[in-house]
Every structure is written in structure tokens, then in C-alpha cells.
Design goal:
Helix 3 crosses helix 10, helix 4 packs across helix 5 and helix 8 packs across helix 9. Strands 1-4 form a two-stranded parallel sheet. Strands 2-3 form a two-stranded parallel sheet. The protein is built from 11 helices and 4 strands, in the order αααααββααααββαα. The protein is globular and about 60 Å long. By secondary structure, it is an alpha/beta fold. The protein has a domain of about 150 residues: Alpha-Beta Complex (Nitrile Hydratase, Chain A), CATH 3.90.330.
């Protein structure tokens, strides 16, 4: 597991059944929603930010989708020089390709999946996630079941997502922190050499860039 956490709260990831299945359903409690609304209204009232500031930030957040990450992956598959730049220093490589400003975002590292090594991303204490390139995290990524179990039994968790890897494939769980985000560069499917970058983008899924799924080979 990569990296230590620096989150300002306690470890709540293990206060539950460690064998509970990972679920797509992970809602926000009514109490949390009420607290968020009260805090938001207080900050607006105190002129910490305006309602328009909040609206613009929400619009920016919602404009970030997994297609951004897919464009990065497709370019890395198609261009070995770009791939080397991406793996060495991801943020400037992504900024230059997508034309977006990542200056205020946490550091970002791209880890490469190969035939011998498979990476899967989690955040054991919170839900730190590469939102700048993948958008809003899925509900299961934030769930206590996923956060606790994927570091303990990654093969079983991956199998619940339908990803069964050979025993000789090493699985590395990379743990995002408040200061570092991770994105997976998936293994390129076979028989895709003839596809354009845009056609490659259409093959790349959000889950493959988190590492819970692998991309299936295209037909010859």
C-alpha cells in the first residue's frame, strides 16, 4: 500500500463488518445532509464565498468526467513519448494535453498496469479521488466496505467486480491521501492497434482507471 494518510480525522474505515460485500449504494445520511446545508448557508452569510462562487464550483466539478481521463489514457497508449512524460510527471502532461489548470489540485501520480502487475486505487480513511480527471467518485469507492476490504483482500474484492486475475499477477493497492491522488493507466486491450485515439477513448471505462476492472480485448 502506497503512502501515509494525513487526514484530520480518525480511522472510521474499519468500524463495520470487514467481510461485508462492496455495494453500489452508499447514500448520505439525513444528519450529514442537514449539517452540510447549515454550514453552507453560514459560510455564505459570513461572506466566505457567495452563492455564485458555489454555483460556479459545482458547475466546474460536474464538467469533469471520466472522459478526460480516457483521453489521457488513449494518448499514452498511442504515443510512447507522452506515456513516459505522464508516468514521470502526470500533472503537467495532463494539463498540456487537456488544456486544464491543475495548479490548485493535489499531486497526481499515474500508475501503469501491465501483464504482470495490476494496480487498484482506494482511500482508506476518506474518499480522496482524482476528481480533476475522473469526475465525481462512484458511491462504492466511498463506502466503508470497499475502503477497508480492498487493502486486506484485493483479489476477492476485484472478483466481486467481475475482475479475476491470474495468480501470478501481482496486485498493488495504492492508497490516496490528502496530498496525493492516483489514476491507473490500464493495460491496453489486444487487437486495438488499428483504432484511432478517439476510438480508443470509447473503450476506456472509469472503473479501469480506478483499477477494479480490466478492459476486454477487441475482436480481431
Amino acid at each position: 500500500m502506497s503512502g501515509d494518510h494525513h487526514h484530520p480525522h480518525g480511522d472510521h474505515a474499519h468500524d463495520h463488518d470487514p467481510h461485508a460485500p462492496v455495494s453500489e449504494v452508499h447514500g448520505v445520511s439525513a444528519e450529514s445532509a442537514l449539517l452540510e446545508r447549515a454550514l453552507r448557508e453560514l459560510l455564505i452569510e459570513k461572506n466566505v464565498f457567495t452563492a455564485d462562487d458555489l454555483r460556479r464550483q459545482i458547475e466546474l466539478t460536474e464538467s469533469r468526467t471520466p472522459e478526460l481521463g480516457a483521453k489521457v489514457v488513449a494518448r499514452a497508449w498511442a504515443d510512447p513519448q507522452y506515456k513516459a512524460q505522464l508516468l514521470a510527471d502526470a500533472k503537467p502532461a495532463i494539463e498540456n494535453l487537456l488544456g486544464i489548470d491543475l495548479n490548485l489540485t493535489p499531486e497526481l501520480t499515474v500508475v501503469e498496469n501491465t501483464a504482470a502487475r495490476h494496480h487498484v486505487i482506494c482511500c482508506t480513511l476518506c474518499s480522496c479521488y482524482p476528481r480533476a480527471v475522473l469526475g465525481i467518485p462512484p458511491a462504492w469507492y466511498k463506502s466503508p466496505e470497499y475502503r477497508a476490504r480492498v487493502v486486506r483482500e484485493p483479489r476477492q474484492v476485484l472478483a466481486e467486480f467481475g475482475t479475476v486475475l491470474p495468480d501470478d499477477v501481482e496486485i498493488r493497492v495504492v492508497d490516496s491521501t490528502a496530498d496525493m491522488r492516483y489514476m491507473v493507466l490500464p493495460l491496453r486491450p489486444r487487437y486495438t492497434e488499428h483504432l484511432s485515439e478517439q476510438e480508443l477513448v470509447a473503450l476506456i471505462t472509469r472503473d479501469s482507471m480506478i483499477g477494479v476492472s480490466v478492459l476486454t480485448d477487441s475482436q480481431r
